[in-house]
Design brief:
Number of helices: 4
Helix content: 40-55%
Shape: elongated
Oligomer: single chain
Largest sheet: 2 strands, antiparallel
Distance between the termini: 45 Å
Strand order of the largest sheet: 1-2
Strand content: 5-15%
Length: 106
């Protein structure tokens, strides 16, 4: 199978995706830092996956969490959830206590 070479725009998006990965940043956090349109970032990643340049990997890693006690300083963070159908949900600057309370009610 012959793969067409990447355009300059595709190569630019691939560079951004690789940099976000190297910096261990979610796509939303990276896009925010670099003033990139998040939808365009996702569309470019999807096109690069379809082209075979990026792998379509689903990460099923679970990570332990600790919920701070009530009344503790409100912490916020970014969160990435990969669903089994490949959909990725990313949340930026979310209050962790509210997130965990919502998730526990599912």
């Amino acid at each position: 199978m012959h793969i067409k070479p990447l355009t300059k725009i595709q190569q630019g998006w691939l560079d951004h995706i690789n940099q976000a990965s190297e910096q261990n940043l979610s796509m939303s956090a990276y896009a925010k830092q670099h003033n990139l349109a998040l939808k365009s970032f996702y569309n470019a990643r999807s096109a690069l996956i379809k082209k075979g340049v990026l792998p379509a990997i689903i990460n099923n890693t679970l990570m332990p969490i600790t919920i701070p006690p009530l009344g503790a300083e409100q912490l916020s963070s970014s969160c990435r959830v990969t669903l089994c159908n490949g959909v990725i949900v990313e949340l930026a600057d979310i209050d962790l206590v509210s997130l965990f309370k919502s998730v526990s009610q599912l």
